[in-house]
Specification:
single chain, 434 residues, mainly alpha, Vanadium-containing Chloroperoxidase, domain 2, 57% helix, 0% strand, disordered C terminus
């Protein structure tokens, strides 16, 4: 019975959390209006009149000298893209974030942070651009303004690549009616608020403690991002708001059962199981789920605001899920399977941090809950993908089943909270605030 638990509990939780009719194909399927509270700024800006914003109708005048000079330079050196259909601006900047984050070897929690800062910034910029007091603003220029500023903060060594991307995007915008400088200036202003958040989210905290010791304790050195569990969250109150049950007691029957299972699986892996391991391990976990959404943004023709909203909530869910998971990992410091099982052969290298709970299981369950809310007709598919991602860690020999089950459980609860936040405006008719 216990082996089937990971397949039973999360699916039920996700369906209960969504509360959506299963006959809907896409949610939402509308453009925001100036009075649509569900599309109000939700994370960094506090309202459409936030003091960080330039005055309506005077966005271009509020541009800093540096922002204006950069816009002039990018417009003078416009670089057309590869041709074909014009790509979604949301997907364009999301994929550039992937490129830069993977290229910089960002660990998965840090990459999730990068996605969230970029995508939330774009979503809030497009929301503000729909204010009826700001007609005629280029959404594409606003997105470019935000993304270019945030990415330059995140990846200062890649400014040439970021500028080239900005030039490419500006080449796709026609017209000389002022919509571009107004959108660009608005985006750059919002980008600065995102950078300010990033500079104060505690992601630069340094671990100064002493790791515990014991037979059940992780024995590596220089663990990856041990302070991640203390970072500022987006929807959760903190990284320890949601927590799993404690790991099994070392040497208990449940603990020994899990340990034996990892060994048994390693001795009888099938080609299908090995393929599943690589499916979920050969790319950074948050990049996998972002690309899953990108494919649907393109195939279903989501509007810019719909796409931006989807990307924002997907990525805050994964960012918070990593923070919760890392808070747990460095609360218990639980040993990895290879540290418990002499001679264990793994399919992939074991990541350099404690085992309990599984990060991939946690963020995948959170992502599945959000994507299932946006695309109700594929809810079951996303749940099954998240469960497969969790099982891939057992197949690979890098996690115990309990790591995966509890990660999935917590990730589902995090996803539920994010889904509720998605509908705060609709349910209460008021602005969601941090």
């Amino acid at each position: 019975m216990r082996k089937g638990l990971i397949f039973a509990i999360p699916a039920v939780l996700v369906m209960l959390a969504s509360g959506c009719a299963r006959d809907r194909i896409l949610a939402p399927a509308r453009e925001p209006s100036s009075t649509d509270a569900s599309y109000s700024p939700q994370f960094v800006l506090h309202s459409l009149d936030d003091p960080a914003l330039p005055a309506p109708g005077r966005e271009a005048e509020a541009a800093t000298t540096q922002d204006g000079a950069l816009l002039d330079r990018l417009q003078m050196t416009r670089r057309p893209g590869p041709g074909g259909d014009t790509p979604s601006a949301i997907v364009f900047w999301n994929r550039l974030t992937t490129e830069l984050g993977v290229g910089a070897n960002q660990p998965p929690p840090l990459l999730a942070r990068s996605y969230a800062l970029v995508q939330v910034g774009i979503f809030e910029a497009l929301t503000v651009a729909h204010d009826r007091r700001r007609p005629g603003i280029s959404q594409r220029a606003a997105a470019a303004g935000v993304a270019s500023g945030v990415l330059a903060y995140l990846f200062p060594a890649s400014t040439a690549r970021i500028d080239a991307a900005g030039s490419e995007e500006l080449s796709r915008i026609g017209g000389q009616d002022g919509s571009v400088p107004r959108g660009w200036s608005l985006g750059r202003a919002i980008g600065r608020t995102m950078v300010a958040r990033g500079m104060h989210d505690r992601s630069d905290a340094v671990y100064t403690g002493t790791p515990p010791t014991g037979d059940e304790i992780w024995t590596g050195t220089n663990p990856v991002l041990p302070m991640c569990g203390t970072w500022k969250t987006w929807v959760l109150r903190s990284g320890d708001e949601i927590a799993p049950e404690p790991p099994y007691a070392f040497g208990s029957a449940l603990d020994l059962h899990d340990t034996q299972e990892v060994l048994d699986v390693s001795l009888a892996r099938t080609p299908e199981q090995i393929a599943i391991v690589h499916k979920w391990a050969d790319r950074s976990p948050p990049a996998i789920w972002n690309e899953m959404l990108n494919a649907r943004i393109e195939s279903r023709g989501l509007s810019a605001v719909e796409a931006a909203r989807a990307q924002a909530f997907l990525n805050v869910a994964m960012a918070d899920a990593f923070i919760e998971c890392w808070a747990c990992k460095f609360k218990y410091w639980t040993a990895r399977p290879f540290q418990r099982i002499p001679g264990l052969v793994t399919v992939i290298p074991t990541p350099n941090f404690p085992t309990y709970t599984s990060g991939h299981s946690t963020i995948s369950a959170a992502a599945a809950a959000v994507l299932g809310e946006i695309f109700p007709d594929e809810r079951d598919y996303f749940v099954q993908q998240s469960l497969e991602a969790a099982m891939s860690r057992l197949y690979g020999g890098i996690h115990f089943r309990h790591d995966n089950e509890q990660g999935t459980f917590c990730g589902t609860l995090i996803g539920q909270k994010v889904v509720k936040r998605m509908h705060v405006g609709e349910e209460r008719g008021e602005l969601a605030r941090n």
